[in-house]
Inverse folding.
DNA sequence: ACCTGAACACCGTTCAAGT
DNA sequence: ACCTGAACACCGTTCAAGT
């Protein structure tokens, strides 16, 4: 019987991907599978639940890294495949913080990160915090990318600077050269991932040096 | 003439804070200041613009740190005062990623971070990326906190684990003791901020060791 | 210029009715 | 059990009309 529910949620994900989350309505989803809006209610109790379900379907698409790889490679691979899924469904990504999925698939993602951090030698007491920091930074990056928060966006860096007198923005002006160049976003993602892995590595080393 | 616009946006922020973003409508905002919904349009071109404006008003509340403090203290203070504002308006916080403010106040926040990173000795070429990483992690934390993504939330850690057979979740079970204890969220925030500052410090040292 | 009230084309959801 | 169609109480926004 979960077949019907999955069909509804996949249809909702499809509409969100094509036309944005705002285009998802009980009526629009129902009509695509030749039903009326009210026919959805036995399977999905509310629109809120439908939006939660869209996020679930997105999470389910993320590929887990091979458990044989070294811990830092596992973290990097997970981050990359997460970003890949996100880039395929940009308008859905903004719901990742506000509708945290509590599903087996979501749990497996967290388990993968916990395991990597343990293998890095991070003390048990620090693992949950580091998992939250890393996943928050990765999800935040991916949302920012999807929403165009990076890149010029609506206002070019130059136009932005013009909002305030130059005297108030010495750092912006010193960095004008960097800011006006459009950033290589994949390189930036890799550098962020490397920095986060470095934090984990340091947390692992701290333990070892205390232990030995 | 911007008085009227500010009144409208502050009213919208007030309603969002009291009753959630969903309670903000052209009609609800207008009626609180004894107008009809249509009377808002000369000042706010659309509801989307009104939601953008709510975020602007939130950003405007963030206190900047004293420029005399050491760079790492400035970063930590900015993060803390940002979190303080966010905690006072939890339901508004989720819009921070999706509606990035492009206003003088928002610009001053970024300028403060740029300046701190430059003072830390971070090479010009790395400052924009580190600013984005730090602000993404901080905003992500604050959204997660506001949305209850940390803390037990809807499903307790124990209930979460029950979604999958134990054999699939060795790390979760090893960490059960940590996970079942409710995290001290302010301490976690401080630890995250310290880790992010540490990344900046290392980026600064890397430069110095190359230079000398 | 600023505001109103009616109207339009949507919503999510409830409910009585059908098969 | 599953689905429908009408209805309710909302939306954002347009438009003609008022002052």
């Amino acid at each position: 019987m979960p077949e019907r529910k999955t069909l509804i949620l996949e249809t909702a994900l499809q509409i969100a991907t094509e036309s944005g989350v705002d285009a998802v309505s009980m009526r629009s989803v129902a009509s695509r599978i030749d039903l009326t809006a009210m026919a959805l209610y036995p399977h999905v109790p509310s629109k809120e639940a439908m939006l939660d379900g869209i996020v679930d379907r997105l999470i389910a698409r993320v590929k887990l890294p091979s458990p044989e790889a070294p811990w830092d490679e596992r973290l990097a691979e997970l981050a990359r495949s997460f970003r890949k899924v996100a880039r395929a469904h940009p308008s859905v990504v903004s719901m990742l913080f506000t509708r945290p999925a509590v599903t087996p698939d979501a749990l497996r993602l967290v388990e993968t990160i916990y395991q990597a951090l343990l293998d890095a030698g991070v003390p048990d007491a620090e693992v949950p915090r580091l998992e939250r920091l890393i996943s928050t930074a990765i999800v935040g990056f991916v949302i920012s990318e999807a929403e165009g928060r990076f890149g010029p966006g609506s206002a070019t860096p130059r136009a932005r600077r013009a909002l305030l007198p130059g005297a108030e923005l010495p750092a912006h002006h010193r960095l004008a050269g960097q800011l006006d160049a459009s950033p290589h976003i994949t390189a930036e993602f890799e550098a962020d991932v490397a920095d986060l892995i470095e934090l984990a590595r340091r947390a692992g080393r701290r333990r070892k040096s205390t232990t030995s």
